[in-house]
Amino acid sequence: MSAHTKSPDGVFPPPLVQGGHDFGSVTDTICKIVEEPPTAGWFAAFAVASSVLAMLGGCIAWLIWEGTGIWGLNNPVGWGWAIVNFVFWVGIGHAGTLISAILFLFRQRWRTAINRFAEAMTIFAVICALVFPGIHVGRIWAAYWMAPLPNQMAMWPNFRSPLLWDVFAVSTYFTVSLLFWYVGLVPDLATLRDRAKGKIRYYAYGLFALGWRGANRHWQNYERAYLLLAGLATPLVLSVHTIVSFDFAVSVIPGWHTTIFPPYFVAGAIFSGFAMVQTLAVPSRKIFGLEDFITVRHVENMNKVILVTGTMVGYAYAMEFFIAWYSAAPYESFAFINRMFGPFGWAYFIMVSCNVITPQLFWSKRIRTSMTWTFILSIFVNIGMWFERFVITMSLHRDFVPSSWDYYSPTVFDILTFVGSFGLFFTLFLLFLKFLPAVAIAEIKGVMPEADPHWDGYHDAHVAKAEEASHG
Amino acid sequence: MKTRNDVPTYWRSLDELQQSAAWEQAVADEFAGDLETEEMDGTTRRHFLGIMGASMAMTGLAGCVRRPVEHIMPYAEMPENVLPGVPNFYATAMNIGGDVVGLLVESHEGRPTKIEGNPGHPINLGRTNSLHQGSVLNLYDPSRLKTPRKGMAPANWDAAADFVKAHFAEQRSSNGRGMAVLSRALPSPTYYHLRDRFLARYPQAKWYTYESVSYDNERQGLTAAFGSPVRPLYRLNKAWVVVSLDADLLCTEHNGVSNANLWSTLRVVDKPDDEMSRLYAVEGTYSVTGSNADHRLRLRPSQVEAFTFALAGELLAQGQVALPADIRAAIPERSKGLDEKAAAFAKAVAADLLDRRTKRGGLRTGVVVPGRRQSAQVHACAAAINAAIGAIGATVDYYADYSRPEGDIGDMAGIKALTEALNGGQVQTLLVLGGNPVYEAPGDLAFGEAMGKAETTIHLADYPDETAREATWALPRAHYLETWGDLVALDGTVSIQQPLIDPLFGAWSEVELLARILGDEPNDGFRLVRGYWKRRVGPLGFFKRWRRWLHDGTHRDVQVTGTLPVSQRRARGMAGLAGAAAPAAGPRALELVFIEDTHLYDGRYANNAWLQEAPDPMTKLVWDNVACVSPKTAAALSLSNEDRISIEVGGKAIDGVAWVQPGLADDMAVVTLGYGRRFDNYLPYHDEGTVGFDVNPLRSADSPNVAYGAVIAKRNGTYPLATVQPYDRLEPGFGYERRPFVRETTTAGYAKDPSFAKPGIIEHGKPFPQGKLVAHPPTKALHPDPVSYAEGHQWGMVIDLNTCTGCNTCIVACVSENNIMSVGKDQIRRGRDMHWIRMDRYFTGDPEDPQVVHQPMVCQQCEMAPCENVCPVAATVHSPEGLNDMVYNRCIGTRYCANNCPFKVRKFNFYNYSKNQPESYHMVRNPDVTVRFRGVMEKCTYCTQRITRGKRRANEAESVEQKKQEIAAITPACAQACPTGSIIFGDINDKESRVAQLKAHPRDYGLLTELNIRPRTSYLSKVRNPNPNMAG
Questions:
Q1: Closest to A430 (Cα-Cα) out of A114, A65, A47, A92
Q2: B771 in contact with A, Cβ within 8 Å
């Protein structure tokens, strides 16, 4: 690898860090974002995000006060935007762990520039996701009954319910993701501690840096822990959305009761997760001057993942229809015809255009490497994936008995709650950008040429030093 | 200290005089100086007392508010027959516009909560309709008139009593000149007795009877036919051919409960060669009866007369039956204008009526039932037909009409005469005994204005309603569960109307007010009714008799009216009936038909949330009335659902809403009475505006049931309507007709394949619509049943679609029994109705002339319930007796169970509906059923509280036989109320039980059994009995 920097004919891939950085400038560039006082732009963004978050708080307070009736739910459609949003956010939360854990295990070294970022996004997305199942129940004050807490009634939750599996799956995922993220942060927190100028800053980072001194022993333990957590997180990436899909697949409702759901949901989750990473990374690298770390190659790689998973999702859509026809099950066939041409047909076509057609544009290298295109298409994918969950959830509106059929329309509170969840997400994300290193400093140094013991530069430096010594 | 000028100031010290601060301090400090303190474990005595005092003050804080004095009484002397927690049942009776049924009313600790039919009553035989079921809610209506009002100002009862006494004493000198009484139909001997005394005391006074839902035509026609006013009692349990001439005989018309009940007995088919009765309906509206007919002919109401005479003509031609001469003579003239289809229909019906005679080896097997909206001539002609085909005494009995006092001139003539008298200034005192004539009277009379011309108007009112607002005095009228009375059913059976509770707010019944007017003492209902019957029946053994009578609700020996003597059972024709033929109709000049609402009747139940929220059986609309038009007429007028329209008749116009109803006759529109009521304080769920629109302004006294030449014009905009079955507006047109939820065949098909209903999935490999239905492959469970369903009681239900008429009585009964909350129009529009029973209504066939099926959808109590395994907190679990139990306390409201229910019969409390209910409605709640709170799921429990009660009684039984009887007697509220007995419930493990036998019946089928859910509720498939000689 050490030679690739010297390859003049493009045989080797371009370097992962560009712009002639050395270790010191890497640390400076990344820490600068945290250490410099927030810009007016940051304050403006934070003001907007936290206002939207306050609105979410208001919506939730009104929901708890008044009841789920403030939403557009009705009798056939017992789950509406809340569940759609839950699945949407959980799906977004997939990219982070996938990038950190699976790509780590596969030794995809380009991941280092974006993993911190993506992991933070994962955690915040899962927080947003967890809001919804918590508040969507009728009696929020009793929602803790879903947890297997010993109680005087000797009453346990129903372990046959996919919703319970969901609680376990998502909370496990959240815990492991948080640990994984935190473990990765420890060396960088120590860096920030060491560079801290104020006392509060020093102690705050010091507390979370867990006494990291960069000792050999520390590094050994750290690498081991990181590897173990990566191993633990990897199956979770697959299991979480598999289990989320069970919420639907284990039911008897046509349009939900489908064996293809687990792989289809996982592919969709990775798809949407990467799209969200792009949505965030493309502007951030520009704003915070991280273009040298999050390079065009990173963006292109992620676009390739989007292309692959998008195609898988498109295949799943097609396969659902094929199976509905091939099974000759009348209710199933109807559910899919209705999905396309029924009252929610418009949502289906939004979903297909955003999720199946737009990612195919990434076959073109020009589009794949264009930041503008990437950003626009990632927004399309985000929209499409929200609609995918909407379309699936809306299978409820026409199931078996026609007399029970109805339509579903959201109320203003459905919409504001969903918008508010973005407030929560961006508030957390802005705080993250301000207080934690957005790129893993320690890790990215590991993919720089200087990290290679056989790096030529060492020789040059050595020679230069020797020369200096002899002259001096 | 203020000095007063006239009194010198006295002072004790200079300090006091100067009011120094030190002096004030000394005065305030009651125990001045250092008092000795006593050590008590570190606490001083004074400190201890201080703390104690403070604690007591704290505990007594709640008592700081001044509260009214309330006396509580120990339960030292227990009222007789009242066991806390165990309901009592009392027999009583109820009158709706002269239609009387016997009831048993459930009372919990003195509160009537639930209406059931009295099985001992010969008319309704324990059955009821939705009005009876819902009537108990009116008792607790917070909008009732609670105190007497003079003008609109509340007055006290003494003032009202004094006024009544003084005012009517004054009238004695004038012999009642200038007095008029407007009464509702109230077939009560005590009432009639008091009326007679009133008229004797005030011979110049006039007495009118008015019912908005008028049976004038029937009375006139039958009076012409039989010489005296009679009412028909159809014996449909003996009628093999029933012809409805614009009559909703199974539902809204008088005696509908009895009709439906008896009709259903001949619709039960057990064996393939069992015969079924056949029902023909000729109507322009789409009534419940029409939806149950084997053949239905769409005909505008005005043409039904022609059809009737054509039918008479066919009977004459085909069977040489004996018809009165004037009818025979009128046939050619009056049967004109029928189209070919209708003529062929008449021919076939006549053949069927006659055919039966030979086939079944005897006469007297058919009956013709004319509807109340049809002209007197139709009734006379139908009576002649019934006489001619030998129906009288066999399939119909005519009873002397007791619903009106003697000499009554009829509803429309009465109200017209009264209005004329009022306008002529001949009425100074108007006494309105019940009713609401300002709202109910035909609009052309402008009764409200006329009423203002009387000096004194006294209204015995249920509500501060349209009439009460205009009256000089409004006196609260007692609800029928609050007062004593006696009511005579159609066949002359007399029931004592027992009150179950004292008047909640104080109220007088009609007899009590009349007694006061007459200056009688005592004037309470009990003494009046009992005293009347003691005099009438004789004192000998009266006490025992009376008790027996109260207990049973009826008395065998007391019969106040009877059937026509055999000598009079010949119809005489229609002499003396005037009436012109109806003008022709077209899309620009419609026939506008006024029908009584299935649930609000003439508007007297407009303030009843249960009934407002019970969907219309055919349109499935709630909380509104509409103008229904056929699809063709709608197209001609370019109307669609929810369009705002104006309806104009003879220069008068009202605003309304359009609804396209498949199956109506063309060139007509149907509107329902009873809406657009204007209360001061409207329904608990509607604070503003009115519910629906009032169509009474378009009615005329001469033609109150049909208005000719109505013009419907589309206005701008739409008006939102709430329907519980909205799919018919959204259906894109593919695929649902192949859903085998309702499985039906004809008698011929049934004879060929008795178990035709068993296959329930579409043949594999052939997507709809080509595939035929086949049986699904055997299903297998992943895990064994948690309990053995072969042991103990296992509850199950069978619903016979062949006899279910779709009348919605079960819905209201269920609401009443299970404390189901009403949610109001807005919530229904959002699809959040709470009914545990959904009455599914599907159309089949040509949209212009479709057939209809009804299917009550309740929780199917699946043995492998999809709802159960998805609940994360195990709030819905299976009982060892096969019930799918819902544990409200445990439910956290994820709604996953409702999502996974293939039948969508679980209902969710999106808001705190029970908390938002008016407080007085709390009294109607059944204490045996949990009142559900916000955020929990609820659904049909098979009335688990009744099962528990039955099992408890079985445990107390003394013999095995009695035990079995107690178990067999367990009946859910829906099954109890059902007029046709279509819901059968019981223990399916008891092979002798009816439900177990029906489960083994070839017609029995379960829904979606291919999902391996194993529903406990199953259906008996529908068998239609078309005339093989008729096409289509």
A1: A47
A2: yes
